[in-house]
Write a structure and sequence with these properties.
Elements lengths: L8 E6 L4 H12 L2 E9 L6 H11 L3 E6 L1 H14 L11 H20 L3 E3 L8 H12 L4 E3 L5 H6 L4 H11 L12 E4 L4 E4 L29 E8 L2 E9 L2 E5 L2 H14 L4 E7 L5 E7 L1 H17 L2 H20 L6 H13 L5 E8 L2 E8 L8 H4 L11 H22 L6
Parallel strand pairs: 1-2, 1-4, 2-3, 4-5
Antiparallel strand pairs: 6-7, 7-12, 8-9, 8-13, 9-10, 11-12, 13-14
Helix pairs in contact: 1-7, 3-4, 3-9, 4-5, 8-9, 10-11
Amino acid sequence: MTESASKKGKVCLAYSGGLDTSCILKWLINQGYDVICFLADCGQEEDFKAAEQKALKVGAKKVYIEDIKKEFVEEFCWPAIQCNANYETLYLLGTSLARPPIARAQIRVAQKEGCFAVSHGCTGKGNDQVRFELAFQALQPGIKIIAPWRDPAFLEKFAGGRNSLLEYASQQGIPVTSTKSKPWSMDENLAHCSYEAGILEDPNTTPPADMWKLTVDPKEAPDEEELFTVEFSKGIPSKLQYTENGKSKTVTDAVDILTAANTIGRRNGVGRIDIVENRFIGIKSRGCYETPGLTCLHFAHLDLEGLCMDREVRALRDQFTTIHYGKVLYNGHYFSPQREFLHASILESQKTVNGKVRCGAYKGNFRILGRESETSKLYDMEESSMDDIGDFDPAAAGGFIAVEAIRLKKYGVMKKEAGEDLV
């Protein structure tokens, strides 16, 4: 359908200002839609004003730039810290955490503007299409979703990839700031920056030094360890104390805490990983991630739990909640009954996790220097001491060992009778 055709209604497009979504914006307009552009400010370093002006020049009816940093940190990053959320051990879910609040903010704009549909620029092979669209359906059941990179007509028109997009941009008068693309794709927010595709698709290709955007090369980081202290209240980072230009600083606001942790991690080269992961749709993918501040807070929290959490509660949480919460986030099931169930268990598990952790960052490494808690009564220095018997009766350990050995002695007898020598 051409621009002269009758209008089909309003569509809210998740817009970035880049080549892909600028071409999608014009394509939607040419299909007969009135397009409302939506940009989410979740802490990425981006020229939002330039993106807004570009969208309006291309033909967007309105542009919304929504600041979601506070809700992103408090509602999404902090619960992930509380349960030590990760995906396949190493990935701290920076992208996965940002998708639900972005989708929610986009639906808010769509509802405000009376849009009958939402649209995005996610590819048909990635996780983000799943994350966004499952969130859209939960937040506004039945809303129409326009996914151009799964539309046969769009795919045919832009079969040449970037070259086809550049040609279309030239034909349609879409401003293009650069004709040379970096040989990888990036996605940034306050929690991290991710890199994938292009030259990174070869899992044996070492990322070039100039790819890493956030963190200094660990080899070039300061030669002196940077010390700081993180305080937690019920597992949530509530205060961060550090030194900036020789002056002591304390921050307590959620966004300020993560920002300060990022500053420390970035200048000390903390938080780089390079992994091959299993996408939800079944394809293996190589991804590189920089997660400076969240890495520091993640491991500080993990350490404090050793001091404050009951052994069995922690084991149950680790074996169930941590694993499944990570999968829920990664697979795009944030707005779901299972996420609500898991979140309730997170809150219950963190009631005792209160205290301070002294930390150090040095040339790509993060380490714990000490921890304390005024509320936890689980750790007793006298009871743990090898030099002071205290109230503990060492003789009682003999009975404990004897009971534990009953099953193992029977195992040893069984092996011997089967002719299997354990020695």
